[in-house]
């Protein structure tokens, strides 16, 4: 079905509430095909992504809430920017140049996604950038030296770009005035059948990853990098997520499903295809390109039906899939992992592209 193109990409801005840090705004980015993305200045949250199925019907395909209060009161991480350090850091500590830094332990016994007040808990400054074939939203946040125990004042810029090719492009840039560590990602949960429609177990996933980092009993990587071949961790060919998720395999038992870092194959001098997710009923497909070395695959194992989403439905176990492009969890404590150290005078930069489409059946 051919969609009627709109006149041009557009953006609207509305006040969406306020916190102690100030007013929160919601931006709605729309492209010429009718795809719409709503982004909050609170936490840099992607609240919704509306895209057509194979018949041209629009649906929101990412999990979120319909009010600011729920985002503030719950650490669900739906759609947010996770940082300063996305993922877990063992025991809430790491050493840098012989100095040990202590972080909040908010996921005992570890620190998770930057601590008790990570980047998901702040109001970001915003500005709009428009062009003839895309619309862009820029967000900026400065984390002061010592924030959540991390050294250095870290300035982070995030740019969301929605193109007429139905691509949502996420660009990061971070600088520091003191040697520190940084790992940034978007923690969007996807359900291509539509938010609130039920389980993602029927979605088919393919990863450009022949290896992964197994976890120990406290959910921290052991330091090993192992092949996925011959295990339920193998998504090198398209496989339904539910096919092996309940297999009697130690790694699945530790996490209650998938919640693992996959090591992406190939050089990352430019964004490469990391993952392809498809949903057979709607025909929707999501391709993710990135220049990061890993992708965390999380199958929504801890969703328990207590949270009500934007469409009024309760989110239950495995109702969403997070695909987080990033460096490896606990990298500062594993010299064999790619470094996450950032020094003054240098910039951390990364790009992830979310390309949405509909496959004709």
Structure description:
- The chain is mainly beta and 361 residues long.
- The protein has one domain (10-358): Beta-galactosidase, Chain A, domain 5.
- Helices cover 3% and strands 40% of the residues.
- It is built from two helices and 28 strands.
- The strands form seven sheets. It has a nine-stranded antiparallel β-sheet, with no helix packed on it. It has a six-stranded antiparallel β-sheet with strand order 17-26-25-22-19-20, with no helix packed on it. It has a five-stranded antiparallel β-sheet with strand order 1-2-3-4-5, with no helix packed on it.
- Residues 1-5 have low confidence and may be disordered.
Spell out the key features of this protein:
361 residues; Beta-galactosidase, Chain A, domain 5; 28 strands; 3% helix; 40% strand; globular; disordered N terminus
The CATH architecture is Distorted Sandwich
Termini separation comes to 11 Å
**Order of strands side by side in the largest beta sheet?**
11-12-13-14-28-24-23-18-21
Order of helices and strands: EEEEEHEEEEEEEEEEEEEEEEHEEEEEEE
Question: Count of helical segments?
Answer: 2
Number of strands: 28
SS strand fraction: 35-45%
At CATH level 3, the topology is Beta-galactosidase, Chain A, domain 5
């Amino acid at each position: 079905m051919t969609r009627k193109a709109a006149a041009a990409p557009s953006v609207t801005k509305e006040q969406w509430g306020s916190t102690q840090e100030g007013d929160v705004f919601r931006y709605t980015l729309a492209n010429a095909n009718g795809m719409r993305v709503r982004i909050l200045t609170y936490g840099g949250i992607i609240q919704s992504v509306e895209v057509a199925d194979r018949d041209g019907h629009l649906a929101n395909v990412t999990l979120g809430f319909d009010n600011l209060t729920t985002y503030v009161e719950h650490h669900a991480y739906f759609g947010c920017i996770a940082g300063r350090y996305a993922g877990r850091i063992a025991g809430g500590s790491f050493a840098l140049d012989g100095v040990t830094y202590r972080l909040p332990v908010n996921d005992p016994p570890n620190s998770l996604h930057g601590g008790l007040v990570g980047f998901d808990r702040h109001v970001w400054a915003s500005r709009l950038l428009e062009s003839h074939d895309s619309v862009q939203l820029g967000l900026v946040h400065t984390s002061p030296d010592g924030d959540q125990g991390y050294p250095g004042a870290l300035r982070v810029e995030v740019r969301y770009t929605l193109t007429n090719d139905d691509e949502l492009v996420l660009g990061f840039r971070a600088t520091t005035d003191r040697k520190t560590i940084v790992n940034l990602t978007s923690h969007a949960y996807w359900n291509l059948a539509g938010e609130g429609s039920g389980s993602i177990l029927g979605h088919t996933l393919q990863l450009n990853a022949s290896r992964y980092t197994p976890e120990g009993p406290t959910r921290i990587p052991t330091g090993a990098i192992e092949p996925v071949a011959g295990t339920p961790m193998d998504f090198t060919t398209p496989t339904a997520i539910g096919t092996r998720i309940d297999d009697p395999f130690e790694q699945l038992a530790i996490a209650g499903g998938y919640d693992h870092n996959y090591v992406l194959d190939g050089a990352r001098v430019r964004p490469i295809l990391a993952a392809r997710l498809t949903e057979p009923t709607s025909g929707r497909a999501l391709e993710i390109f990135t220049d990061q070395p890993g992708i965390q695959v999380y199958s929504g194992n801890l969703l328990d039906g207590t949270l009500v989403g934007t469409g009024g439905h309760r989110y239950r176990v495995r109702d969403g899939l997070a695909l987080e492009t990033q460096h490896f969890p606990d990298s500062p404590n594993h010299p064999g992992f790619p470094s996450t150290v950032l020094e003054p005078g240098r910039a951390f930069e990364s790009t992830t592209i979310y390309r949405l489409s509909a496959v004709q059946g």
